Amino acid sequence: MGYYTTKKFEGYPIDALDYFSLFTKRISYFKNSANMINSDINKQIDNLLSNSIQKRNIAIVIFIIAILILILGFYIYKTIRTHIKELSNTLNKLAPITGENVQIDINSPKGMNEALKITEEAIAITQEAVKKSEEASKAKSLFLANMSHEIRTPLNGILGFLELLKTTEITPEQQDYINTIAQSAENLLQIVNNILDVSKIESNKLTLEEIDFKIEDEIENTLEVFATPCAQKEIEYVSYISPDIPSVVRGDVLKIKEILTNLINNAIKFTHKNGTIEVNVKLQEIKENRANIYFEVKDTGIGMSEEQKNKIFEAFAQADESVTRKYGGTGLGLTIVKSYIEMMGGNIKVESEINKGSKFYFDLWFNIVDATPKYRKNSFSNLTFAILNTFKDTKRKDLSLEYLNFFGINKIGFNEASELNKLSKNEIINGVIVFYEESEKDKIKNLQNIDYPVILISSLVYKKEIDNLDFKQFNIYDPNVPSKFYNAILFTKEEIKREVKKAEHKKEIYELHALIAEDNPINMKLLKTTLKNMGN
After folding, report:
1. How far apart are CA 274 and CA 235, in angstroms?
2. d(CA 458, CA 465)
3. How far apart are CA 439 and CA 411, in angstroms?
4. How do residues 262-316 score in pLDDT, each as one tens digit?
5. Residue 93 exposed, middle or buried by CB count within 10 Å (0-12, 13-18, 19+)
6. What are the distances in angstroms from CA 86 to CA 4, 75, 80, 264, 287?
7. How many CB atoms lie within 10 A of CB 108?
8. H or E stretch including 290?
9. Vertex 345, ends 206 and 200: CA angle to 5°?
10. Which stretch of DSSP H or E encloses residue 358?
11. What pTM was estimated for this model as a whole?
12. Adjacency order of strands within the sheet including 454-458
C-alpha cells in the first residue's frame, strides 16, 4: 500500500511519529536479524576453525608417530642385521668343531638349513666333550684321594718314628736335624691333607659331621697350638673369646677348628717380626635357641691389593706368584676355608691393605645344647687387683683388661713397689697384675719382695726370663683366653696352686693287651714300639 494514492502529495496517511516509530522497529528487526545471522555465521566459522585445528593436530601427531615408527623400524632393521651378522660369525666359529670349514650365510634358506645342521652337530660334540671332562674330573679326584691316602700313610710312620727318636739319647745337632725333618714332614702332610680335602670338595663327597661340643674349650685348644710359632717370630698373639658364649653347642667342630687353623697359619706366614695377630670369637645374638657367633682373624702382615683379594679363594691360587716363592704354600687353604664356611651357611669376607695387614671374618649359627655360659659375669666383683702401670699400650693389655672387666675385678694402678705398699694400707688388695713386656724390668724386679700373688701376662718369648723371677706367680702366656684368666683369679684366692713338675719317663703306665689292626708294616712297627715303651 502506498503512502499516498494520487500523484499529488496531500500528506501522509498516518502520523509522522507513528511512521517513525514503525520505521524504527523495522530497522531494529533488521538489525537483530543481521546479528542473528552474523552470530550463526561466527559459530559456523568457529566450529570449522576448531575442527581444522583438531585435524591439524591429529595430522601432526600421526606424522610424528610415523617418523618415530620409521626411526624405530630403521633401528630394528640395523639391530637385526647386526645380530644376523654376529650369528653368522658365531656359526662360522662353530663349524670347525664339527670338522667342516665353511662360510655360512643365514640370509638365504640354504644357509639357514646349513646353520641348523652345524649347530646340532656342534651341540652333540660339546655334550660329549662335557661328559668326558666330567669323567676325567671324577677320575682326577679319585686319583688325588687315593694318592693322598697312600702318601699320608708312610708320612704318619715317619712322624711317629721321629717322635720316638727324640726320646733316645741324641746330640743337640742331631736334635736340630730331627726337628727339621719333622717340620718338613708335617708341612708335606698338611699339603697332602689339603689336596685330599679339595678333591672331596670337587667330588661333592664332603659332608658336615655335627656333634655336641664345648665351643669355648675347643677354640682355646686350637689357638694354643700357635703360641710357639708366634713366639718364634716374636709376634704379639692375642685373642678375645666372649666368656658368655653358651657352653655347649651343636656343629662340625673339626671343620671349625680347621678353618681357624688355616686362617691363623696364613696370618703367621705373612706377619713379620714385632707384628700382631688378633683372634676374636664373639657372641652376637641368641635367637630361637640358636647362637650367632662371630669369628675374626686379623694381622698386621703384608696385606693385599683389591686385585689380589679377588683371587685368593681360588684353588691353587695365591695373591701373587712371588708369594709362593717367598712364603711357600699350595694356595689351597683359603679355598677349603671358604667351602667349609659356605657348607655351614656362612660367608667369609676379607678386608686388606698392602703393608698394613688383613682381616678375615665370618659368622655362623649354632644350635644351642646348653645355654649356660661357662663363666658368670661379675663373678669376682669382690676382688681388687693392683696393676703395675705400663710405659706402652698393646692389644694384649687392652684385651686382658676386657676379661678383667667381664669378671668384675676392681682395678687400682700403681707405679712402683713403695706405692703399692702405701695403697695396701687403705685398700684390700687380692693380687697384683704385671704386663711383663709392657713394663719396666727394674720395677718388676722390685716387686719380688711383696707379699701378694702376682699374675704375669706376657708373650711366650719371655718365658725363660719370667721363670727366673722369684714370685708367687701365675703366668699367662699368649694367647690370652678366658680359662687362663679364670684360673689366675682362682690362684689369687688360693683355690688352686701352681705346680711345676719335671717331665719323667714312666714305664708300665697301663697293664693291658692290645690288638693292632693295621695292614701297613711300618705303622705296625711304630704302634708296637710305642706300646712297648708304655709297658705293654
Report:
1. 5
2. 11
3. 17
4. 999 999 999 999 999 999 999 999 999 999 999 999 999 998 888 888 778 776 5
5. exposed
6. 106, 16, 10, 51, 55
7. 10
8. strand 290-299
9. 15
10. strand 357-373
11. 0.65
12. 410-414, 384-388, 431-435, 454-458, 473-477
Give dist(CA 219, CA 174) in Å, integer. Answer: 35
- Band (pLDDT 50/70/90 cuts) for residue 506 is very low
The whole-angstrom separation of Cα 171 and Cα 173 is 5
Q: What does each C-alpha distance from 391 to 397, 438, 465, 471, 482 come to in angstroms?
A: 12, 6, 19, 22, 25
Please, how many CA atoms are within 13 Å of residue 281, restricted to the half-sphere of its CB?
26
Contact (CB, 8 A) for 402 and 241: no
Beta bridge partners of 299: 277
Among 316, 340, 366, 296, which residue's Cα sits nearest to residue 201? 340
The alpha carbon dihedral of 92, 95, 97, 99 has a sign of negative
Angstrom distance (rounded) from CA 122 to CA 166: 64
Yes or no: say if 118 and 95 are a contact pair by the CB < 8 Å rule. Answer: yes
- Taken as a whole, the chain contains a residue count of 536
Strand-pair category, 276-287 with 236-241: parallel
Cell for 353?
Answer: 691393605
Residue 431 neighbours by CB distance under 10 Å: 22
Residue found under cell 654376529? 86
Beta bridge pairs of residue 364: 293
Residues 333, 317: Cα–Cα separation, whole Å: 10
